[in-house]
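ugh ok fine here u go
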Amino acid sequence: MKNMKQYDEPANLLKALSHPVRLCIVRGLMRKKKCNVSFMQECLDMPQSTVSQHLQKLRSAGIVATERNGLEVNYILANERIAHIVTILLGEEDCEHE
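structure:
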């Protein structure tokens, strides 16, 4: 049997992306390049705690990272491969919430 370890990272990335809200967050970051939780909360029309939970899953998987500017924390895509994957999955159209 081949080494299955090589499939761990791609499988974890796909698991983290396998939710409509997380896909939309990634699509929004592809468009805006960086964004804070408050803006995402307004765009998605969801409670901040819900958006934060989704962002934490994306962070844990290495899909998004944070940039701190004083008190403001912005999220950015941490992995350029994700933009390619999401474009393949969803095409070029923008996220409807944006």
